[in-house]
Amino acid sequence: MTPSSMQHGNVRGRIFSGVQPTGNLHLGNYLGAIRNWVQLQDSFESIYCVVDLHAITVAQDPDQLRQSTREVAASLIAAGISPERAIVFNQSRVAQHSQLAWIFSCVARLGWLNRMTQFKEKAGKNRENARVGLYSYPILMAADILAYRATHVPVGEDQKQHLELTRDIAQSFNQAYEVDFFPLPEPQILGSATRVMSLRDGSAKMSKSDASDNSRINLTDDRDQIAQKIRKAKTDPDALPSEAAGLEDRPEAKNLVGIYAALADSTVDAVLAEFGGRGFGDFKPALADLSVETLSPMGEKMRDLLENPDHIDNILDVGAARAEAIAAPIIDEVNEIVGFLGRRS
Ligand code: TRP
């Protein structure tokens, strides 16, 4: 164990994860990632970062970026992440991320980046016009994680390839400099995560960019909006099956039952044991009640927090100082390993 992780009792390792400062966080973000972060903060030393440096790999309006950064921080706290137990901050405040990213861009190879499927998707056809930062995005992500020598990284399936690259970079650095300095961080593919689909189309992921607001439950929606969106959700005419296998060709039914199970901290089988044989006329009101009960307090807390931006900014400020206190000595050591002449005394 590193000295800094030993300071925490019963800690199994150090977690780092990042979330993009995009507005309009929704139920899919909550059940897919944030809720797991809340659980992990009890068993790991946890560092949660709003990745504003990553955000500018695509065009951003500066005021909107500031506001989205606050919004995402507020949602993490409203969801139950404790800014005392965990560290919550925005990436640009800790200069070590950018510093290490440069060093790593001198470790990683073009061929490694060329394999990244997310870049290919995001750059689209006009690759010549893609920003260099979009291309080197995974290098910054490796720097995020390794600036803290984090051992575990909770990520969704779509970030697995980036984490593989992080491990390659760590290993390659260790080899090149003949040190055993960086750990090879383990992905924590979120086992209990729920893939939440659009309420209007069970075959599309719930998304902030869907033109229809009825396709998603935003974390800031109030009780009425939540209930109404569930009532309007697309379904099929059949009754619910009594076993999970019966949901296979029914994407909308599968989605709603999955949401119910996740919000009730239950399983699909248990939900179907209760609702099997009953129609959506019974199931939807139950799901609406459960959704309102579990989600609306979070929305209220988020709205409260956002009414007082100074308070959020202060939380992020404290988080950044704590993050830097961990990252600075690590990057000092990296500079030494690489052969940079350091500050005197
Ligand atoms: N790329 C991640 C995403 O889009 C966000 C991210 C940035 C991240 N840095 C990270 C996730 C470090 C885990 C660890 O979801």
SSE blueprint:
Layout (H helix, E strand, L loop, with lengths): L2 H4 L7 E6 L7 H14 L4 E6 L1 H4 L6 H17 L8 E4 L5 H10 L4 H5 L2 H7 L8 H15 L5 E4 L4 H17 L9 E4 L33 H10 L18 H13 L4 H8 L4 H28 L1 H30 L7
Helix pairs in contact: 4-13, 5-8, 5-14, 8-9, 10-13, 11-12, 11-13
Bound molecules: tryptophan.
Tag the structure with descriptive keywords.
345 residues, mainly alpha, Rossmann fold, Tyrosyl-Transfer RNA Synthetase, three-stranded parallel β-sheet, 14 helices, 7% strand, disordered N terminus, binds tryptophan
Structural commentary:
The protein has 345 residues and is mainly alpha-helical. It folds into two domains: 224 residues, Rossmann fold; 92 residues, Tyrosyl-Transfer RNA Synthetase (Orthogonal Bundle). The protein is built from 14 helices and five strands. Helix 2 links the parallel strand 1 and strand 2. Helix 4 packs across helix 13 and helix 5 packs parallel to helix 14. The two termini are 28 Å apart. The N terminus is likely disordered. Bound molecules: tryptophan. Tryptophan binds next to strand 1, helix 8 and strand 4.
